[in-house]
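thought: user wants a sequence for this fold. calling inverse folding tool.
action: design(structure=
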């Protein structure tokens, strides 16, 4: 019988309890899990997977993780593990076969002295080994009935600077361990997933004028969607993929447009003699938030999806709120909190609800930019720059924890996940 290690007591979920955005969580017991790998002729591959798996389990925030290092294949000594207060043992093997690399997960429940999971993960391309680890973490997490971490198995799409006037589009896992270039040559910027299945993306390419292109990452087929003289960017895709929010600048200044994918038609949503950009769907895709300088500085505003709908200011904090992302009724935005003439300025991330006045600061230092919600809304990915390093960050909202993955030799222009 499966043992439930985590007991969560919620006063509503994070996105239902919008009076304070707080989650009341009582954890009776977080399971201690030890992770090890087999010492064999394929132990280097097993070691790579086990390292990623340990990271995944830590970032899930559902486990206390300990390092079992190499395991020589003896039978499991359950009493010894019980004395060490270990609840679960995850053991990894890798086998190089004629069909490709196979990763094997053995998950032992120490408290019941049983092998609970024995699963093979086929890896046709060895470079994809991080996703075998992510799938293992999801399966281990599911075993203890913890909240889903399925977002770990999704691709990140990003635009990477190569040199002046040249950027490439890359897909990666969330740790950036796996990276594959899918589009190169010229200026390819602002990638955005076109559907929930992550089979297609939108991105902007500079041809005779900025042009939005839809591209299938598996077939390589592409089609031009729309072009605009000054700017052409997909900033948000509706849940069903049928509608887009575009930032276009056909007449010098940028405005927000709603594009209907099936009919290939667009309608203008803002008409302001300044800058309106970066629309993001909210309220079940019936409204949007966007960035505008109509307050005299970049700030976050909202309106229904009609040009005649009134515009409402959303954020009343900060004097330079230049980037935002939304999930349902929740908005994460950047706010500048210093005005250094030389060196990096401090930009922190804040989380708010469009249904309440509550505000929650998510970062404390550095330049934190480009926040993006995960597809389940439980995590936020962002770019962090300090004097010491640049990193891709993950904030786990329910747990008030953040993690950084250093950006070594990579400069990201934009990303989506």
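)
observation: tool returned 417 residues.
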């Amino acid at each position: 019988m499966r043992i439930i290690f985590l007991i969560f007591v919620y006063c509503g979920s994070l996105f239902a309890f919008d009076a304070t955005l707080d989650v009341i969580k009582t954890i009776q017991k977080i399971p201690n899990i030890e992770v090890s790998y087999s010492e064999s002729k394929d132990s280097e591959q097993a070691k790579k997977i086990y390292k990623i798996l340990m990271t995944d389990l830590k970032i899930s925030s559902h486990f206390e993780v300990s390092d079992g290092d190499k395991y020589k294949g003896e039978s499991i000594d359950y009493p010894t593990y019980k004395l060490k207060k270990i609840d679960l043992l995850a053991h990894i093997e890798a086998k190089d076969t004629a069909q490709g690399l196979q990763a094997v997960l053995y998950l032992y429940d120490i408290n019941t002295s049983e092998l609970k999971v024995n699963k093979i993960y086929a890896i046709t391309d060895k470079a994809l080994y991080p996703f075998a680890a992510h799938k293992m973490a999801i399966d281990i997490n599911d075993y203890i009935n913890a909240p889903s971490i399925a977002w770990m198995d999704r691709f990140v799409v990003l635009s990477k600077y190569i040199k002046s006037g040249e950027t490439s589009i890359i897909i990666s896992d969330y740790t950036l361990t796996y990276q594959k270039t899918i589009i190169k040559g010229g200026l390819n910027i602002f990638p955005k997933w076109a559907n929930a299945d992550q089979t297609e993306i939108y991105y902007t390419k500079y041809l005779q004028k900025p042009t939005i292109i839809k591209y299938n990452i598996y077939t390589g087929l592409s089609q031009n969607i729309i072009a605009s003289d000054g700017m052409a960017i997909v900033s948000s895709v509706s849940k069903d993929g049928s509608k887009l929010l575009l930032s276009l600048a056909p007449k010098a200044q940028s405005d927000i447009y709603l594009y209907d994918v099936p009919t290939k038609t667009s309608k203008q949503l803002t008409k302001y003699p300044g800058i309106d950009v970066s629309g993001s769907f909210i309220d079940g895709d019936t409204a949007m938030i966007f960035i505008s300088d109509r307050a005299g500085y970049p700030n976050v505003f909202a309106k229904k999806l009609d040009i005649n709908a009134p515009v409402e200011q959303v954020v009343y904090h900060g004097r330079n709120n230049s980037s935002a992302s939304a999930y349902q009724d929740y908005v994460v935005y950047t706010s500048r909190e210093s005005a250094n003439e030389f060196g990096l300025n401090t930009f922190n991330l804040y989380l708010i609800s469009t249904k309440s006045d509550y505000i929650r600061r998510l970062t404390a230092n550095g330049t934190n930019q480009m926040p993006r919600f995960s597809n389940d809304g439980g995590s936020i990915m962002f770019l962090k720059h300090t004097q010491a390093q640049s990193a891709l960050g993950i904030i786990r909202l329910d747990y008030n924890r953040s993690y950084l993955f250093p950006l070594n030799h990579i400069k990201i222009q934009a990303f989506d996940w």
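thought: summarizing for user.
answer: Here is the designed sequence. The first helix runs from residue 43 to 60.
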